[in-house]
Every structure is written in C-alpha cells, then in structure tokens.
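Late entry, evening session. Most of the bench is empty. Finally got around to the prediction I had been postponing all week. Sequence below, unchanged from the version circulated by S.P.
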Amino acid sequence: MPIAKRTVLILGAGASQHLGYPIGEDLLFKIAGLSTDNNGMSFVYELETVGKLPRKFPFHTGTIDNFLYDIQFATEYYSSIDAYLEHNENYVSVGKWLIARELTKYEITPRVINPGWYRVLFRALFGHIPVDKPPTIARNLSIITYNYDRSLEQYLHWTIIKTFGFHSMWTTIDPGAMPRAEAAFKAIPIVHVHGLLGNYPAVRYSPKLDHRELLAISRKINIINEMQDASDGFCNNEYRRAYRLLEEADRIIFAGFGFFSDNIKRLRFFATDAARTKEIHASIWHQSKLVEERMMREAVDCGVQGSDCHFYRHTTCDDLFANHVDLTSS
C-alpha cells in the first residue's frame, strides 16, 4: 500500500547514524582530533608536506592550525561544531571546510552498507508498484532535514533507478524507464534547512573529493549566524518552505531529532494552533535517560504536543519504523 496520509518527516542527525555518520559531539571531537591525526602526524603537517592546499586558497595552513588549537577548548563547552562556529565567526569558512571533509568520508552507497530505515521508506513509497511497471510519482511524503549529508537522496535515487530503470534480469537499461525513475526521485520534496554537501546528483557522491571540491560544497552549508531572519521571521527560504509543508501535513514524524529548542522554534510552526491538530510521532534516543528527559521537555515546551502526539523513548529510527509507525497506515 502507498503512503495514505500527507506525511512530513523531520530528520535530525540520528537519522543517518546507522550509516556511521558522526552526530553532535562526535563530529566536534573528530574535527578537534585532527590536531594529532594519522598516527601522531598533525593534519596541518600533512597539508604542508603531502596534500598541499592549492594556490589562492581562501585560507592557509596557519588558519587551520589556529582553529584546531582553539577548538580543543571548545569540546568542554559546546555540544556541536555548528554551535561553536555560530559563536566564532572568524572560523566559519575553515570550520565548514573541515565539516565537509569529515562528512564526505561517509559518502558510500548506503545499500552496500546498511540502509536501515531507508529501506522501509523506499518500500512505503514504491513497494506497491511491480518492478516491471514504471514508477509512479510518490505522493503524500515530504522530508525536512537538519542534516548536511545526502545519504537519503543517494539511496532513494540509486534504488529507484536500479529497481525501475532496468529490465531483462537487470542487464539492460530501459531508455524509457530511466527518465521516469529520475522524475520519481525528483518529485520527493527534500528540504535541507541548513544546507547540504552539494546538490544531488549534480555534485558527485564520493568520499574522495579534492580540496577545491570540498571548498565548493562547504559553501552550501549554512551556519545559523549566516542566515538572517526576513521580515516574516524565517531564517531562509528553506525554513519558509518547511513551514508550508508542515501546514499541509496530516502527520508529522520526528526521526533522529535532538529537540534543541532553537531548532524547533526556527520552524515557527509548532508555536501555532494548527500544530495541535496534527498527528505527531517522535523518536527519542540517547544513552542518558536524563538527556532523553531534557529532549522531551524541550519538545513539549516548544509546542510539540497535542491529543495525538506520541513520544517513543530510547527508540532509534530503525525501531521507530519497525515497531511504532506504519507509514502506509490510514
């Protein structure tokens, strides 16, 4: 059965954690650890001797060295690299470049590793269509994500094409099916409110990008202080688009979301009366029960509540869609 209700997924860092992506403090510590990476050789020394930066690069190794020194102390106070950069604007460019460098290491085809709940989503969107038929445009699903990574796009794109773009036992490309498969992928609204690691599939999905490629995609990342509230109160067009999707939804599902109050408030939707009328499901997962309690409090305080609002404690995204939420139910 296809997805029956107009559904919006709101994804946080935990949504791609099953693929090994570092989240929150993990990414902060990985970047801070570059000061003594590669068996004791510093990342800066490696740049100076092996993988040198191109000429006319917007920052030099001295800037990177200063950043890596200062960020050692940030790990004691900040919960994420984004939060650190929000309050240290002089390091935004180099920080975003290092974020891109770390996250693109995980750009490996999800199907090869562990698609996890991505497979559940694909089957809800297209599982009712015979593989020998062209894929119809998926309805009733939109995705709002706070993540920079493009793993979900890559998985859906790759799987739609591999499932519906071939015939004759997967050996021959069907010229007519390929455009339909591409159209089916492009019809799924995916909104990255804080930017992403390059538009997919225009920017290649690869863990082996050079310094200039990393610089180009790092400029697609938006730290919150780079986004200015417009007269209508939205940080950028992506937040404005997200609001419209939430308005039209019957069901809202938070998956892998950290429920930091600022992130909820920037959506602006949950401060409205309309939010109380929605069916809401939210997974909450953290190793600490105290952190889970904080997440629930902040969610409720910011308006994630109502008569049809359901929280699932100590629940990963895989658990959420396997045991609590059926995307195809009406």
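Two things to note before I forget:
The chain has two domains: 1-21+108-330, 22-107.
The mean pLDDT is 88.
Will write this up properly tomorrow.
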